[in-house]
Structure formats: structure tokens, C-alpha cells
Amino acid sequence: MIRRQSIPALFALLCVIYILYALVINLIVHPNAETFLSHKIGSEHVVKPAVWLKVMNVHVGFACVAMASGLINFVSRNYEKRRRFHRLNGYVYVIAVVLVDLSSGYMAPYATGGKISSIGFNLLNMIWMAITVTAIVQIRKKRILQHRRWMVRSYAFCFTNLLIHLFTIVLHQWIGITYVTSYTIGLYGSIVLLLALPEVLFRIWKTKNRAAV
Prior knowledge:
Layout: H1 7-29, H2 34-38, H3 49-75, H4 83-107, H5 115-140, H6 144-156, H7 160-175, H8 179-212
Helix pairs in contact: 1-3, 3-4, 4-5, 5-6, 5-8, 6-8, 7-8
């Protein structure tokens, strides 16, 4: 049975593994993303591979920065003693989120699945940015608990790509739905799940805290 104290360490390890996996797959194993680009049908815009790949690398790179930066602030202890570092690292996280959103905004018109997927990615970008800005507003008002909760909600969106691909694998390879349809369902399914999971976690934590009293 996994001890409660070991859960943050396990979560951190899984995040590090995923970051390394994303970097290796996108920058070393499949640097030209041939397979992924081959599924981009139904788009009104013609993909320019050279430009798209550069933007994609920026997107992946800063997505990894956001995940790592957020992880450091969540798992670090003695916040009061490291307040300056926490703040600076928070700025790194916010900048990374902005750059991920901007690069995603560029790639949205070329999204696999055409216009409906493009709308989904733009919606996702707006939600993530709105949540992140809310977290900043909360800490500026010295509402620490609310800030932490909104940061949990924001950080959840660092796992968007992971969830989309998990949905796609299950729907396409296990159930047999076409790749494009699976990807589109995965996109919208991920948005719903990423909004719901933090609220479930908050309820679980609240229940445990009541039980501990």
C-alpha cells in the first residue's frame, strides 16, 4: 500500500518521466512528426511543415517548462523560507503558459480534425489562460488558499496532451474508431476531465481533513 507521504514523490517522478518522454519523442525519435502530420486532414489551411515544426518545438519545450516549474512549486517545502524563489518560479510558469497558449493558437487552424478541433483548442487555450490569470489575481489579494486551488486547476492543463493521446489510443486502437474522430473526441473529453478532476480532488481533500479533525 502506498503511504500518503510518498504520493507527492511518486507524482513528481511520473511528471519527470513524462517530461523526458515528451522531449525524446518530439525532438529525437520523431523530430519531423511525419505520422502525426499525416493525420491532418479536413483542415481549410495548408500546413507548412518547416514553420509548423518550429512552432511545435516551441510548444513542446515550454509545455515541459510549465510542467516542471509548476511541479517544483507544488512539491517544494518550507514555502515561507523560499517565498522569493516561489514567486520567481511562478513567473516562469506563467510565461511558459502564455507561450504554450500562443504557439497552440498558431497551430489551432491546422488541428487534426479540422474546424471543430480548431475551436476546441482555442477554447482550451482561453480556459487555461483565464484560470491562470485568476490564480494570479488571488495571490495578489493575499488569498493563499484560493491561489493554491486555482493553481491546481491551472496545472491540470499541463496534462492536456497526455490525456488527448490516451483518449485517442483507447478509442482508435482499442475500440476501432477512426484516428481523426478519436482525436477530436479526446480533445473535448480532455477539457471536461481537466476541469472536473481538480474539483474531485478538492472534495477528497476536504473529506479527509474533516475525518482527521
